[in-house]
Specification:
The protein has about 120 residues and is an all-alpha fold. Helices cover about 80% and strands about 0% of the residues. It is built from 5 helices and no strands. Helix 2 runs antiparallel to helix 4.
């Protein structure tokens, strides 16, 4: 009786549950990336104002004087990560990678197939 208890698979070892988790993660990732992109684009369109062109030129020059090229690079990176298309891409990449891990873990290893 103890041998049956030890050899019984845990819920996370069942392939169907891992596949279902992978599908749910993938669908939620796609939906949330779409929502982030849509809401971010709407907010970005509201911020576009032709009178603000060149407004931050002085600020960029000061940043470069104070922190050099590395400060300018960090500011560009920070501004890039605030873009909705970048955020949506990161969400998609993480959800795809996580779901692929779930699908890979759900696939039985060749040794397990031979035992069955």
């Amino acid at each position: 009786m103890n041998d049956e208890f030890v050899n019984r698979p845990t819920p996370l070892q069942k392939p169907s549950k891992l596949k279902l988790a992978g599908i749910i993660i993938l669908v939620l990732g796609i939906v949330s990336a779409g929502v982030v992109y849509g809401l971010g684009r709407r907010a970005a369109d509201a911020e576009l104002d032709p009178s603000m062109i060149g407004y931050d030129k002085q600020q960029n020059e000061q940043m470069e004087r104070m922190y050099g090229k590395s400060g300018e690079l960090m500011e560009d990176l920070s501004n890039g990560l605030k873009q909705p298309n970048t955020q949506a891409g990161i969400i998609m990449a993480v959800s795809i990678a996580t779901s692929l891990v779930c699908f890979r873990l759900a696939k039985p290893y060749p040794e397990e197939e031979k035992e069955k």
